[in-house]
Design brief:
Strand 1 and strand 2 form a beta hairpin. The chain has one domain. The protein is globular, with a radius of gyration of 19 Å. By secondary structure, the chain is α+β, with helices and mostly antiparallel strands. The chain is about 30% helix and about 15% strand.
Length: about 150
């Protein structure tokens, strides 16, 4: 092990570079992410599920259900509440019985491209209890069956 480390094996950590605010703005300005087409809206929702609600693994996205998102208000303002289920670090087994799955509140900040507004629009276009990701229809601003 010492010889391999001395020769450079395993000393460089592989990781993905984070998306900067400038990169995010470029995605919006290029039209890849937009709120006027169903395909653009689906890209926005996927992006902010990762950025805001911390979804990483394939199974987190695949098992995501629309009923895990709810809208509410408090003294601090309106917010969207995400109730997490199984994830990479919480799978609900016997070892995790003492843990509670994560819940994330994201408050409406009044920004034009705010997560609250994006998810309110998207969730109004799909059934309330169904798989979250839906197939964007090219012919209209609607979503079809599961992806």
């Amino acid at each position: 092990m010492k010889e391999m480390t001395a020769s450079g094996v395993g000393v460089c950590v592989k990781r993905a570079d984070p998306i900067s605010p400038d990169d995010e703005l470029r995605l919006w300005n290029s039209g890849v992410m937009n709120m006027s087409t169903s395909k653009g809206l689906s890209y926005v929702v996927l992006f902010y599920n990762c950025k805001t609600f911390g979804m990483r693994g394939n199974m987190e996205h695949k098992n995501l259900d629309a009923c895990q998102f709810t809208f509410a208000s408090s003294d601090e303002g309106s917010y969207i509440l995400f109730n997490g289920c199984n994830s990479k670090t919480f799978n609900g087994g016997l070892k995790h019985r003492r843990f509670v799955p994560g819940s994330i509140k994201h408050f409406d900040n009044g920004d034009e491209r705010r997560v609250f507004k994006i998810f309110k629009l998207y969730l109004s276009m799909i059934p309330t209890s169904c798989p979250f990701y839906r197939k964007p229809l090219a012919s209209s601003f609607k979503f079809g069956l599961n992806v």
